[in-house]
Amino acid sequence: MKKALASVCLSILLTPAVYAASTKEDLQNRIDSAKVVMDQIMNADDRTIPTDILRSATCVAVVPGMVKGAFLIGAQYGQGVVTCRTGHGWSAPVFIRMAGGSFGFQIGGQSTDLILVAVNDRGMQDLLKDKFKIGADASAAAGPVGRAGQADTDWKMNAELLSYSRAKGLFAGIDLDGTSVSQNKEDTQVYYGHPEEFGNVLKGNVPVPAGAVPFVRDVAHHFVKAKETK
Q1: In CA terms, which of 44, 46, 90, 174 is 20 to 30 Å from 166?
Q2: Using one digit for the tens of pLDDT, what is the confidence trace for 122-131?
Q3: Is residue 1 part of a domain?
Q4: CB-neighbour burial class of residue 86 (10 A; exposed 0-12, middle 13-18, buried 19+)
Q5: What is the DSSP letter of 93?
Q6: pTM here?
Q7: Residue 206 sits in which domain range?
Q8: Cβ neighbours of residue 203 under 8 Å, at least 6 residues apart?
Q9: Alpha carbons 143 and 162: distance in angstroms, whole number
């Protein structure tokens, strides 16, 4: 009964966000916001993603302003962009949705910026072939923080994804178990003007649109810089 109620409440809470159509301008704003999030986090003094993780990254997802709300049931929903490392730089972006919920007596709300870093060969190119759930279909861990610090966890062996969030100026790893991640084919089609297959884009086979160049260059700058400082 609780699961059924949770499912119904989650659907009600998320329906407006799921079915609202995005315009090309909306999507450009999302990409621009993702660049701002990346800049602000990577320019933090020592509360940022460790250099060894930047060097190991195969893909990066940025979800600006992921909404977490609650009224008897917790719910979270966000839309973001993904780019992946290729043999000749970083790929053009694709759009994703993230959603999840947890049952409990709670009332409140919060908006956070979210970053997911894929750190092994099974990057998001493979994960995004289908909808996947963090913790079930893809192993994840709350990412360690500290520019020069070594990750003192076993993420290199066990985690496919490292997750980070920033709320009210605080940046830290976050537990996203149970959160689903799926392709947003509709937004990707609107942005490119025609359907694009996710794997093809993330493998670098599609040119980076002019509006996405600043974001992709920004990711490349931070992640390539990390390799050079090894």
Answers
A1: 90
A2: 777 777 887 8
A3: no
A4: middle
A5: P
A6: 0.81
A7: 21-66+80-96+111-228
A8: 84, 86, 91, 125
A9: 5
Measured distance CA(160)–CA(117) in Å, rounded: 8
Whether residue 153 lies inside any domain: the answer is: yes
- Total tally of structural domains belonging to the chain: 1
Query: Is 177 inside a domain boundary?
Result: yes
Report how far residue 80's alpha carbon sits from residue 36's, in angstroms, rounded to the nearest whole number.
13
Closest CA to 13 of 100, 97, 104: 100
Q: By C-alpha distance, which of 102, 99, 42 is closest to 67?
A: 99
Phi (first) and psi of residue 174, to 5 degrees:
-140, 145
Mean pLDDT to the nearest integer, 31-54: 86
pLDDT at 149 > cutoff 60: no
Q: Is residue 6 part of a domain?
A: no
